[in-house]
Amino acid sequence: MWKIIYFTTYLNNKPSLMDYSDELKIIDMMMNLPISWIIKNKEEFLYALNILSDSHTIGNGFLLQTEKDDLIFNHFCQWLTEVNNKTDISLLGYIDDFSPDALKLDEFRKNNKFE
């Protein structure tokens, strides 16, 4: 239960465009929420997901994503698909905001090597 309370408190104390490290922390927190909590608190969950999505895309968090972090985001996209399939919450539209392939991060990294 404390993790859920911490999740809401943590999110409420962050700006809408978070630091990249906060994005990673929110992803970890979300993936540890029980499905029953997500279903019961659908609006709060979607609010958090929207903030995370905006921070990662509009706030350019994805530009800080390393190849090592791609695994985290691929896993998060798989998790979103699982939650989508287990609930009546439509989440598939968010996958392009987090998928390294959809964001074309390999191409971006290749074209923006700083040496």
Task: Explain what this protein looks like in three dimensions.
With 115 residues, the chain is mainly alpha-helical. The protein has one domain (2-111). The radius of gyration is 14 Å and the shape is globular. The longest helix has 20 residues, at 67-86. Helices cover 66% and strands 0% of the residues. The chain contains 7 helices and no strands. Helix 2 packs antiparallel against helix 4.
Would you count the extended β strands for me?
A: 0
Tell me the structural class. Answer: mainly alpha
Strand count, sense and closure of the main sheet?
none
Shape: globular
Sequence stretches where pLDDT stays below 50 over 5 or more residues = none
Provide the number of structural domains. Answer: 1
What is the percentage of strand-forming residues? under 5%
Number of helical regions: 7
Global Rg = 14 Å
Report the span from N to C terminus: 47 Å
Task: Summarize the entry for a quick read.
With 115 residues, the protein is mainly alpha-helical.
List keywords for this structure.
115 residues, globular, mainly alpha, 66% helix
Break the fold down into its secondary structure elements and pairings.
Blueprint: H1 2-12, H2 20-31, H3 35-40, H4 42-57, H5 67-86, H6 95-98, H7 105-111
Helix pairs in contact: 2-4
